[in-house]
Amino acid sequence: MRNLKLTLAYDGTDFAGWQVQPDASTVQGTLSSAIGRITGEKVMPQGSGRTDSGVHALGQVATLQTESAIPAGNFVMALNDILPASIRVLAAEEVALDFHPRKSARAKTYRYRIYREAICAPLLARYVWHYPYPLDEDAMREAAPLVEGEHDFTSFAAADPERGREGVSNVRRIFSSQWQRDSSELIYEVRGNGFLHHMVRNLVGTFLLVGKGTLKPGDVTTILKACDRSAAGATAPATGLYLVSVEY
Questions:
Q1: What does DSSP assign to residue 101?
Q2: What is the pLDDT of residue 31?
């Protein structure tokens, strides 16, 4: 048995997220089908995390365990010949059998893009959140670093039945959190040791309230300490979110 690590990029627009679901097109399910056509095996690749419906990836990591003798490098060409253009395998390498894309991960980086111009080009619309309304971007930049460090991020987590189990923690460490301007886009980038369901999109939605003046930058600290989802802002749309990279 071999364990192969795949690095993937995908346009999440037409998929119901990463995780396989009945009667829905998913990245995991599409990848599994392509692997089966190549190796003849029924393999379910494991990912570093479950990106939601509409969320994109520049560097998702997945593993597949196979008895196939096909060289790792050949999987890149073979899978890309079968997969839809919206999913690309960027690299493949053999790793130890105990390597797990989620459990072995040390850090992840996410990026969120907000397009600030009055008119958003149609070919860009599926990759950004179009928000042309007034925002105090300096206040948003001031608020972003307040979530750095180790905190309980319950206020920024979607309801998840698994989180109710004993021993499952909502504590995560954020290494960096910042907003920056890049031409017509306001971009949020956050790097941490792990993220809860909808956490990045809920952070973005809360920072947006700071930009609108509904909240002050310091209110973000108060929201963190509240450990109450209702204290934070609404969930930002999936279209602007990207899983940029996973570190091991």
A1: T
A2: 97
